[in-house]
Amino acid sequence: MTVNSGNFDFTDNSHRRFNPLTNSWVLVSPHRAKRPWMGQQEVPFSPNEPEFDAKCYLCPGNTRASGEINPQYPSTFIFPNDFPAVKLNQPNFIDDGKEMTLKDRFMRAQQVEGKCFVICFSPKHNLTIPRMKIGELKNVVDAWAKLYLELEAEARTKATPYKYLQIFENKGTAMGCSNLHPHGQAWCLSTIPDEVDKEFRSFAKYSKEHSSCLLGDYIALELEERDRIVLQNDSFLVVVPYWAVWPFETLLMSKQHLCSLADFNDQQKLELASIIKKLTTKYDNLFETSFPYSMGLHQAPLNAIQQANNSSWFHMHFYPPLLRSATVRKFLVGFELLGEPQRDLTAEQAAKRLADLEEEVHFTEIR
């Protein structure tokens, strides 16, 4: 058991924190937050976006690069990505079962098939999640769940079934988003993505060792300590995880053992929409800017066997890059690339700043 001698100050002394989800460490250097900043500063991206953009390939009625014309959709709209990262019906690439050669040891490859989708959250080009109504966001959650169930059913009929659906959103040009229309993506793969697989392995190991669920126990601890809680409602809890890497990273978890969106009832979908809106609103209010982030859902594999379901637990990661202001961002470079991730702000400090913020947008957004 780790015991603090009484003189160790977590807000001033350097230390490492363990991430049980990925079996990794992060270096925390809170004293460095006092140093002056003379590095790169971003120029806030602030165009005056219209509600409809005739040049936007995601707006209703517009023609996409594929030549397809978007319908005049009134709500959330999903369509196959015109430039998918993975494809179906590729030539076979299989292991012939022969003895592994020296080249095979170092130059391994694995065939991946699947489908990719674009998920337009709203027909309005100038919205972001914090600016959407709860009902509009509930439509997004409904669409996520519907897609998950449809692909799970489709996978049962395929010779090479899909294994995982990764739903995510990149918001803002700082996160590489090339189109400001509110949208996310969903990649359905015949493999389990590496970050997700690390979590599944950790969940299974923890369950075997402790006869309980990793995230279930972690939620109980966070509710007891309350130092890193940002938001909560009856169904979900948002914390800055103890092991956070990004300055204002958050982890959104279902309080009950829900394996995937397929387990949600209508009230839980509504509460997920509500807490996502409140969290992203706090992000916007932090530096009074349209806050960039990458967000993703982690849940059970498609058609998971009982053992995988037992260790899966629905949660969402939010990774925002801003550090000190709307113009100063965090870069993972140097030691972080060559050694291990590092942060200057403790999880507890970040959680308090986010928790203290209003849950209603209080500035005029210029995206």
TrEMBL record:
Catalytic activities: alpha-D-galactose 1-phosphate + UDP-alpha-D-glucose = alpha-D-glucose 1-phosphate + UDP-alpha-D-galactose
Record pathway: Carbohydrate metabolism; galactose metabolism
Residue ranges of domain Galactose-1-phosphate uridyl transferase N-terminal in the record: 7-193
Cellular compartments per GO CC: cytoplasm
Keyword Zinc carried by entry: yes
UniProt keyword list: Carbohydrate metabolism, Galactose metabolism, Iron, Metal-binding, Nucleotidyltransferase, Transferase, Zinc
Family note: Belongs to the galactose-1-phosphate uridylyltransferase type 1 family.
Protein name: Galactose-1-phosphate uridylyltransferase
Native source organism of the sequence: Lachancea thermotolerans (strain ATCC 56472 / CBS 6340 / NRRL Y-8284) (Yeast)
